């Protein structure tokens, strides 16, 4: 009798576990979770296009360089992505598909790699491109915004009059880490009366929690890198 009860209980437990894992597998994030448990490498996702097959090609073209520019840093090198015309085009296309027809009149690119992705996006969606540069790089009158880094301060500058009050702006950079630079860019644009619609980056390092510093402003990324 006890054997039968034990067998029935075991069978029920197995059925419950099967249902539980079937439920988990119905979520698209599960492969990322499993990868974090089994691999020290990379997990790729898109905030809105995680099923798009182009993302895998983009991910594989981004080189990770350990201990650059200093020890302990895993540098995400997008120059290898630029060497592949298809992967580069797919990257731009994914952003254009998201922002075309959204009445965005300004694409603000952050120095320096935001200058790579911002202009083609701006051209494709019919917006102007505004460079946000480090100090003393722009001639003429500028407006400045300081921001705090982990070990000091930095500053972004924009030409006075480049952005008008009421314009809808998209902020573009290659990567979000701690989020300090994106916050400074948004502050700069909002100080002149622009509406920041969204921030767009190719890569996010979620462990550095930069997204949390954006004060709820939407962030769209193509690739998420998880380091274990």
UniProtKB/TrEMBL annotation:
<keyword id="KW-0812">Transmembrane</keyword>
<dbReference type="GO" id="GO:0005829">
    <property type="term" value="C:cytosol"/>
</dbReference>
<dbReference type="GO" id="GO:0003999">
    <property type="term" value="F:adenine phosphoribosyltransferase activity"/>
</dbReference>
<comment type="subunit">
    <text>Homodimer.</text>
</comment>
<dbReference type="InterPro" id="IPR005764">
    <property type="entry name" value="Ade_phspho_trans"/>
</dbReference>
<dbReference type="InterPro" id="IPR029057">
    <property type="entry name" value="PRTase-like"/>
</dbReference>
<comment type="similarity">
    <text>Belongs to the purine/pyrimidine phosphoribosyltransferase family.</text>
</comment>
<keyword id="KW-0660">Purine salvage</keyword>
<dbReference type="GO" id="GO:0006166">
    <property type="term" value="P:purine ribonucleoside salvage"/>
</dbReference>
<feature type="transmembrane region" description="Helical">
    <location>
        <begin position="12"/>
        <end position="30"/>
    </location>
</feature>
<keyword id="KW-0328">Glycosyltransferase</keyword>
<keyword id="KW-0808">Transferase</keyword>
<dbReference type="GO" id="GO:0006168">
    <property type="term" value="P:adenine salvage"/>
</dbReference>
<comment type="pathway">
    <text>Purine metabolism; AMP biosynthesis via salvage pathway; AMP from adenine: step 1/1.</text>
</comment>
<protein>
    <recommendedName>
        <fullName>adenine phosphoribosyltransferase</fullName>
        <ecNumber>2.4.2.7</ecNumber>
    </recommendedName>
</protein>
<keyword id="KW-0472">Membrane</keyword>
<keyword id="KW-1133">Transmembrane helix</keyword>
<dbReference type="Pfam" id="PF00156">
    <property type="entry name" value="Pribosyltran"/>
</dbReference>
<dbReference type="InterPro" id="IPR050120">
    <property type="entry name" value="Adenine_PRTase"/>
</dbReference>
<dbReference type="InterPro" id="IPR000836">
    <property type="entry name" value="PRTase_dom"/>
</dbReference>
<keyword id="KW-0963">Cytoplasm</keyword>
<feature type="domain" description="Phosphoribosyltransferase">
    <location>
        <begin position="85"/>
        <end position="210"/>
    </location>
</feature>
């Amino acid at each position: 009798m006890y054997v039968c009860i034990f067998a029935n209980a075991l069978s029920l437990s197995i059925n419950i576990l099967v249902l539980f894992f079937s439920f988990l597998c119905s979520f698209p994030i599960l492969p990322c979770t499993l990868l974090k448990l089994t691999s020290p490498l990379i997990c790729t996702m898109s905030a809105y296009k995680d099923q798009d097959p182009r993302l895998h090609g983009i991910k594989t073209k981004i080189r990770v360089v350990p201990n650059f520019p200093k020890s302990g840093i895993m540098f995400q090198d997008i120059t290898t992505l630029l060497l592949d015309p298809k992967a580069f085009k797919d990257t731009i296309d994914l952003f254009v598909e998201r922002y075309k027809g959204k009445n965005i009149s300004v694409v603000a690119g952050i120095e320096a790699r935001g200058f790579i992705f911002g202009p083609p996006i701006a051209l494709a969606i019919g917006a102007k491109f505004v460079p946000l540069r480090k100090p003393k790089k722009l001639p003429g009158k500028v407006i400045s915004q300081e921001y705090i880094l982990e070990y000091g301060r930095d500053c972004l500058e924009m030409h006075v009059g480049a952005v008008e009050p009421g314009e809808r702006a998209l902020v573009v950079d290659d990567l979000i880490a701690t989020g300090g630079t994106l916050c400074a860019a948004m502050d700069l644009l909002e100080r002149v009366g622009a509406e920041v619609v969204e921030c767009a980056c190719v890569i996010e390092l979620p462990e550095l929690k930069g997204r949390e510093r954006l004060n709820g402003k939407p962030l769209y990324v193509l690739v998420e890198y998880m380091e274990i």
